[in-house]
Amino acid sequence: ISTMKKLRFDKTENLIPIISIFCYMIILFLSPDIAEEVHRSLFFCLETIIPAIFTPLAFSFFILSFPLSEAVRRKTEKVLFPAFGLRGNCTQAVFTGLTGGYNIAPKTAVKLLKNGEIGYEQAKRLALFFSSSGFSFAVNITGIAVYNSFTTGLKLFISGITADILIAFIYNRLCRNNER
After folding, report:
1. What pLDDT is attached to residue 3?
2. pLDDT higher than threshold 90 for residue 117
3. Which one of 7, 46, 75, 121 is separated from 173 by 20 to 30 angstroms, measured CA to CA?
4. What is the pLDDT of residues 155-164, one digit of tens each?
């Protein structure tokens, strides 16, 4: 008997999305004002939000598909290690983290960690570069779409990068002081 009640509940639960969609369709057909707003919102997403996310994602996969030469790794390590405690093989992840934002760069860090190229402590330090939004999102969505200002979006992007760099630098200094 309990199985039959559970099956009935499951069937009712499966109907909820269908009933909800049906109600939304009735509202859209009966109210042209609501339908117009839904239409504008969908086009806003298609014109601004999706390109702001897709472009940096495609760019980061392109950047990450090319391995860095050993010479480039050595040169970037001269800056990354003293300042942030990161090796040269983290260069691409730092770059994509600062330019692409939080939705892209963590995949790079996980890939480096799983491949054994970095340790857990370096993965934590690398994650400090992933907290800001990317250029495209900061400028296109926040700056232009929300505030109607390219300059505001650019200021937001620069402040996010600055915050990421300062946090990583301070964290590295604190970790060094604790190790001594």
Report:
1. 52
2. no
3. 75
4. 999 999 999 8
Query: How many residues appear in the chain?
Result: 180
Per-residue model confidence as pLDDT tens digits over 47-64 = 777 776 777 777 777 776
Distance separating alpha carbons of residues 126 and 82, to the nearest angstrom: 14
The two three-digit tokens of residue 107, written as one number: 């995949």
Name residue 101's beta-bridge partners: 133
> In b/e form, how buried is each residue of 139-172, taking b as 16+ CB within 10 angstroms?
bbbbbbeeeeeeebbeebbeebbeebbeebeeeb
Token duo for residue 120:
């857990």
Contacts of 94 (CB under 8 A, 6+ apart): 80, 84, 86, 126, 129
Q: Where are the alpha helices (DSSP H) in 85-149?
A: 91-100, 105-114, 120-127, 135-136
What pLDDT shows up at residue 141? Answer: 82
In the 8-state DSSP scheme, what is residue 118? S
- Bridge partners of 133, per DSSP, are 101
On whether the pTM is more than 0.90, the answer is no
Q: How many CA atoms lie within 13 A of 165 on its CB side?
A: 12
Cα 180 to chain centroid distance, Å, stands at 35
**Secondary structure string (H, E, C) spanning 127-172:** HHHHCCECHHHHHHHHHHHHCCCHHHHHHHHHHHHHHHHHHHHHHH
